[in-house]
Amino acid sequence: MNRVLITMFALVLLCGSLMAQSTQPNSGSKPQAQPTGQAAAPAPSAPANTPTRLAPGSILPVQLTKSIDAKKAKTGDEVVAKVTQDLRTNAGAIILPKDTKIVGHITDVQARSKEQKESQLAIVFDQAVMKSGEAMRMPMTIQAIIAPRNSGNSASGNPGMEPGGTSPSVGGRPGPMGGATPTASVPKAPSDASPSASGQPQGQPPITGNTQGVVGIENLKLSAAPDAKQGSVVSSEKNNVKLDDGTLLLLRVN
Asked: Which end of the chain, C or N, has fewer beta carbons within 10 A?
């Protein structure tokens, strides 16, 4: 009887020893990684390559690179101008560099004739082309037209705006959607010329970003087209409309 009890007790001890060994971790296996609770680092964002947009109301001083004549022009003809100087924000960042191309087209043309006493040119500017070739859509209207220097069409034979002349430094204020609105950034006008609907000098202060109408060109008027898509209308009741190469335009971003 005692021998049976001793045998059973030995079996119980042997089973307990085997169960303990089965629960011990394998020292040769690698421990599994435990969560640390730290969030994974976000992937770096791609740099922004989108150019700064000019806010509505921004004024661009540009010069025509080629003359436009109502007697020769056709609807759809391209009109090209170039920015006369760097446009910067108050922080000094360049919005549009000097010589950036501003491209538009003629939306309507009407030469003067015996039957038609008034000559008209309707022009719309709608994009800026960077030096890299990238085009930025930017609808604009003509706010002012200033005669180029030594223009034979200027009022009283006085020269108009001097290409590349001295101008105040460009300022700006933040605009919507990350854009910027340049303030006055146009060359100074002659002391005896000022804007008027007819282009006649009135001895007013030099041209600023608020200048409107025509400066230094006789018998020329500037108005908005009835249809906004047609842009601005330049008209004359005495001559065929002609804008010489170098004519300065103040363009307002719509």
From this structure: N
Q: How far apart are CA 118 and CA 110, in angstroms?
A: 8
Q: How many domains does the chain contain in total?
A: 1
CB 205 within 8 A of CB 192: no
89 phi/psi in degrees, rounded to 5: -85, 175
Residue 32 lies in a domain: no
193-202 — which CB contacts under 8 Å span 24+ positions? 193/147, 193/154, 193/155, 193/158, 193/160, 195/144, 197/221, 197/222, 199/147, 199/155, 200/155, 201/155, 201/156, 201/158
Among the residue ranges 28-37, 72-81, 119-128, the one predicted with the least confidence is 28-37
User: Where in the sequence is the domain holding 126, given as residue range(s)?
Assistant: 59-253
Does the residue 168 lie in any domain?
yes
Report yes or no on 5 lying in a domain: no
Helix, strand, or coil (residue 65): coil
> Measured between alpha carbons, how far is residue 104 from residues 140, 148, 246 in Å?
9, 20, 16
